[in-house]
Amino acid sequence: MDMINLTIDKKPVTVKRGTSLLAAAAQVGIKIPSLCYMKLEDLNIENKPGGCRVCVVEVEGRRNLTPACCTDVAEGMVVSTHSIRAIHARRTVVELILSDHPTDCLKCAKAGNCDLQSMAQHLGIREIHFEGEKSTFREDTSPAIIRELDKCIRCRRCEMMCNEVQSVGALSAINRGFNAVVAPAFEMNLDHSVCTYCGQCVAVCPTGALTEKDNTGAVIRALSDSTKTVIVQTAPAVRAALGEEFGDEPGTLVTGKLAAALRRLGFDYVFDTDFAADLTIMEEGTELLSRLTAFLGGDKDVKLPMLTSCCPAWVKFFEHQFPDLIDIPSTARSPQQMFGAIAKSFFAEKIGVNRKDLVVVSIMPCVAKKYECSREEFSENGNPDVDFALTTRELAQLINLANIDFKSLPDEDFDNPLGESTGASVIFGTTGGVIEAAVRTAYEVFTGKKLQRLDFNELRGMEGIRHATIDFDGLPINIGIAHGLGNARKLLEDIQQGKSHFHAIEIMSCPGGCIGGGGQPYHHGDAEILKKRQMALYREDAGKPIRKSHENPFITKLYEEFLGAPMSDKAHHLLHTEYFDRSKNGN
Amino acid sequence: MPKIKLSQKTIEIVKEICASFENNEGELINVLHETQHKLGYLPAEIQELIAIELNMSVAKVYGVVTFYSFFNMIPQGEFPISVCMGTACYVRGAEQILHEIKRQLNIEVGQSTPDGKFSLNCLRCVGACGLAPVVMVGDKVYGRVAPQQVRKIIAEYQEGCVKPERHEM
User: Fold this and answer.
1) CATH number for the A140-203 domain, one of 3.30.420.270, 3.60.20.10, 3.30.70.20, 3.40.50.10310?
2) Alpha-carbon gap: A154 to the closest alpha carbon of chain B (Å)
3) Which residue of B has its CA nearest to A190?
4) Confidence band for B111, pLDDT divided at 50, 70 and 90
5) C or N: which end of chain B has fewer Cβ atoms within 10 Å?
């Protein structure tokens, strides 16, 4: 190994060639402040445009200060990270950024979570010595994401996520100088662009320039309307992250407290999207088996591999970018929308409430879910199946508004009949989880045999693209998994070129899956947080008495009482959907 | 923004240009240069077409078009007038010249005259600082221009001039 010796703040350091000064310093406990730089370890995600210059350090023998994030170590380097010159430059840089930044921090959606605000505090900025014109931009409101670019600091993290990680290409740096900003082509609104609303730009934005559309007001109004019955569903990944908003360690499971908090907020019924995830497995699993059976029977027209369809950003992605493949994904709706459809038919009927008087709220780790529930096909006469989707962060906001001391809440259960779920549905929240859940059910239905093991470790992990072959009693089933739309693109291109050997592929838009969703508590560039959330979901699964979707007794009952069988006409009408070619007409 | 319909001929021209650079994303700036040279400007529809041909996002294409002041998204006049605002020209009175051209043509920087004859832009240094202040009309360079000469320069192009070779969209 080619090692380099240098000195940072008088400490001798030995690191591999090619290490940045920022990383080398971190190895000896020196934390050089950085703003635009961001790295998600193990996910292959790094942003280092060297643009903000907050991480500048002094290197002996060099005339100019150098940014530590994009300067490699060199033999014999003598580096000072806190010389007067470096400190002065760093503070000047932050003051200059602040001089072109709105000063509405007290009421900014990002207050308390803003990296720029933290940086100003960290450096003890008490005065801004520069005054002048501020750059202003038009605000852009979409169903899911709000762009308030007066607050953009041109770190370009969003651009990196949108292009390099997600390969969506909705955002780019445009214009130059004072007018430079990150925007869609022709500065069009996001909802006219190819944006998938995956929300990864929101997840990494250091300031309040990109935030989710706030639906808390609408939910509070619904809860206080005595003519409405308001029910709530909560997605699997929420329970593994919500605690972070209240000071819990990442990876703390708060399922019981979550149910208790929702009940105290005044929801009439506290249900679980996990129930609908079990339902998804029944429909999607059956669809996979019917395609497989047709394929094995020699049907040459059958579409394989089958792709999962739980993720609304992924759906919008292939509708825009791969219109030739829109008949490959499963037609099964996402769990959020299956829940909405069942709630406003089966459940509304059961409790004798008109669908117009039933308000369905969902708590999601996701901003794209806001867009998904606004899609026309998921409504009846203008009444949406799911009325409002809130992010995990928005739920924390509601809990605070309702004066609930989250940490002191008891553990409570979800209500029935739409609250019972299995371990299979819990892992829907992580990459690999949906396909593992599908395998548990598809195997037993297909072979008629009991599974010997329920943990499919070969499907788990954080690798961007993974594959495994599962033996279905002599029939090898090839499974692919991708998280991050850039990785999904690679698998789709293989399918286009006829190179794919998979029978089924799971795709989730966000790195890590829903645990890393755009609506989750901010990770501030720490990928360890995502791994801990992932482990939490597998823990919850392992502790569940029932771990296979088809064994959920309330699911069995729902088919008996209402739906008939998976993929029946009724199931088709309520639980399946169609996709649209969006390549021509934008949104 | 209003959509314009590209003629089949225009589409072919753009495709040919992209192909001549092997549809290589890295050649975007050259493709844009050549396209603007042939078509006069780079409207949104052309940028969309180039993005498809080079297999890149249209946001990136737009990013490059808006970064370089050389590229235009609105139609240029038959005779594009450029006033150099580089340091040498500026200190020798480029601003007064610009003012005079705006007054005579009754347009602002970035606009075209209603008859489509002239458009007005500023640029930075054409490398003829010895001739400051410099005005360009099309490819022709006018040096040591005084505000009084502006009327005469414009008159040269008012009628009877050979049209520059350019494909109409």
Assistant:
1) 3.30.70.20
2) 14
3) B59
4) confident
5) N
Task: State the architecture of A3-122 in CATH terms.
Answer: Roll (3.10)
- Token digits of residue A228: 């409405």
CA–CA separation, A480 and A466 (whole Å): 6
Average predicted confidence (pLDDT) for chain B: 90
The two beta strands, A229-234 and A269-270, are parallel
Q: Which residues of B touch A186 (CB under 8 A)?
A: 1, 44, 47, 62
Q: With an 8 Å Cβ cutoff, are B67 and A176 in contact?
A: yes
Buried b (16+ CB within 10 A) or exposed e, A248-277: bebbbbbbebbbbbbbbbebbbbbbbbbbb
Query: Which of B25, B60, B64, B65 to mutate to probe the A interface, most A CBs <10 Å?
Result: B60
Residues in Cβ contact with A142 at an 8 Å cutoff, skipping those fewer than 6 apart: A189, A190, A191, A195, A197, A213, A371
A-B Cβ pairs (cutoff 8 Å, strict):
43
Q: Looking at A139, A187, A349, A377, which residue is catalytic? A: A377
Contact (CB<8Å) A173/B63: yes
Letter string b/e over residues A104-136, b meaning 16 or more CB atoms within 10 A of that residue's CB: ebeebbbeebbbbbebbeebeeeeeeeeeeebe
Residue A496 at interface with chain B, using a CB cutoff of 8 Å: no
> Which neighbouring-strand residues pair with B118?
B79
Nearest 10 degrees: Cα torsion A99, A105, A109, A111:
110
Tokens of A137: 């931009």
Provide residues of B within 8 Å CB-CB of chain A.
1, 44, 47-48, 56-63, 66-67
Residue-level pLDDT at B151: 92
Residue ranges covered by each domain of chain A: 3-122, 140-203, 216-274+337-408, 280-332+422-575
DSSP structure string for A342-368: HIIIIIHHHHT--GGGEEEEEEES-SH
The minimum CA-CA distance between B63 and chain A, rounded to whole Å, is 4
CB-facing half-sphere around the CA of B39: CA atoms within 13 A: 30
Helix (H, G, I), strand (E, B) or coil at A142: coil
A133 is annotated as an active-site residue = no
Tell me which residue has tokens 């000896």. A28
Q: Is A330 annotated in the active site?
A: yes
Write the residue in B44, B48, B62 that is nearest to A172 by C-beta: B62
Chain A nearest C-alpha distance from B59 (Å): 4
Give the amino acid at A120. A
A280-332+422-575 carries CATH number 3.40.250.10: no
The whole-angstrom distance between B102's CA and the closest CA on chain A is 24
φ, ψ dihedrals at B92, nearest 5°: -100, 20
Residue-level length of chain B: 169
- DSSP string over A393-422: HHHHHHHHHTT--GGGPPP-PPPSSS----
Of B1, B48, B63, the CB nearest to A172: B63
Which segments in chain A show pLDDT lower than 50?
A: none
What are A270-281's pLDDT values in tens digits? 999 999 999 999
Chosen for mutation from A186, A190, A201 (greatest number of chain B CBs closer than 10 Å) is A186
A388: Cβ–Cβ under 8 A, 6 or more apart, which residues?
A215, A218, A219, A222, A359, A360, A361, A362, A373
Distance CA A386, CA A466 (A): 33
Residue numbers of A between 157 and 186 with CB closer than 8 Å to B? 163, 168-176, 183-186
- Give the number of other CB atoms < 10 A from CB of residue A66: 18
User: Over 80: is that where the pLDDT of B92 sits?
Assistant: yes
